[in-house]
Amino acid sequence: MWERFSYYGMRALLVLYLISATDAERPDGNPNLNPGFGWSEDSAYLLYGVYTWAVYLTPIFGGLLADRLLGTHRSLLVGGWIIASGHLTLAATALFGITPGAAVSLQTSPGALLCFVGGLTLIVIGTGFFKPCATVMVGQLYSADDPRRDAGFTLFYMGINVGAVLAPLVAGTLGEILGWHWGFGAAAVGMILGIVVYQLLRPKYLSGIGDPPRQCASDTRADAANKGPPARLTIVQWQRIGVILILAFVGNIAFWTAFEQAGSSMNVFAAQSTDRTVWGLLSEPFPATWYQSVNPTAVIIFAPLFAWLWVWLARRDLDPSIPTKFALGLWLLGLAFIAMVFGAASADDGGLAGPHWLLITYIVYTWGELCLSPVGLAMVTRLAPVHLQSMMMGLWFFSFSLSNLLAGLVARFSTKLETGQWTFIVEGLSGFYMLLVVVPIAVGCLILAMSPLLSRWMHVRRFEPGPAGQT
Length: 471
Hints:
Blueprint: H1 2-19, H2 41-57, H3 59-70, H4 72-91, H5 110-139, H6 149-178, H7 180-205, H8 235-259, H9 265-273, H10 294-315, H11 322-348, H12 355-383, H13 389-418, H14 429-458
Helix pairs in contact: 1-2, 1-6, 1-7, 2-5, 2-13, 3-4, 3-5, 3-13, 4-5, 4-7, 5-13, 6-7, 6-10, 6-12, 8-11, 8-12, 8-13, 8-14, 10-12, 11-12, 11-14, 13-14
């Protein structure tokens, strides 16, 4: 939960912080009480893409270390403390001589820039240790053929999204109103509290889960097809790995490249092109970062319904295959951006878009996320060989890494479409969002066409009802 607080806090604040005017750039001569780096939107989008790319790249190496040396429990602890130190370092950026009316701004302060880059680097490293391990530990709670696995991961997904809801409301509000450093520091406090609670309660609730490899040489929970010599993989194992890689590097990348516009182009759209007075009902616009809470709030609301739906369908032998769920997720994502096409059109006409367009998009594409993301996490823990689970989870997150880098690059092109340099189907910024309608739906059709082959390569049996209706 607190790792998501960290990530969503950065997603809410980072681009807005980078494009915020420096103290020296205030055109009205008044002091800027909350200065930023004064970057262009293009540059901010690029850094955001590189940062989020790195956040999802390092779990490959963290997962490998957890598999071979540390174990998931110790790796999680190391990562949590490093993430907390990264946020404290970001908060310390405000200490470097930035005062109202000063000649030195954040943009020209070497100490501030060094502190800023150092904080981002620590968060990236810490996330590499932390992120794959928490997910693998959830998978260790279930046997390989337990029909509750997809539902369990959906509930896990709901839980961690509590942090994603709180981050824009707490870190975002503190950052926009009191000062960026307050927003960055809030994530450190949460992570430290989370680690302390975890260490206190682990012996009672998670004893033996996540121990180093030498302490858990055998795994009675594992699927027999996943067992085998650590240096040799069977044909079944290679085919299962192939399913993971295809869905990761085709379906996942297409989905998250569009989805992660939330932290860049859609975040700026909320700040600059959306009526945040709610049609004049509010005397002051609400913080743009609050929109970042809509998606995780929708996850919390709808995740139990999706968890119940998958179990209900499985008991009736109607549960869609994993590739089919991916296709559904991509279609819902594409349909969600239709609302942004209309919202951008109203902004292109010289006005502000209604506050409902972003709201509709975030809710509908959350339905797509619930069809794809928790199901994908459960799939990796089910199909990956036991001795490679953390590393395969790292590869899964590597697909998120590429998605976020592409998302930043794609967001940069939104400015070209907005200014009319390029056109896609319709003119202006609406054409940019039309692109995000067409591509996910097309990739969803491709995944559905591959579904029979991928289902065979998974080599999983349908869940059979047990005695007294149990599974």
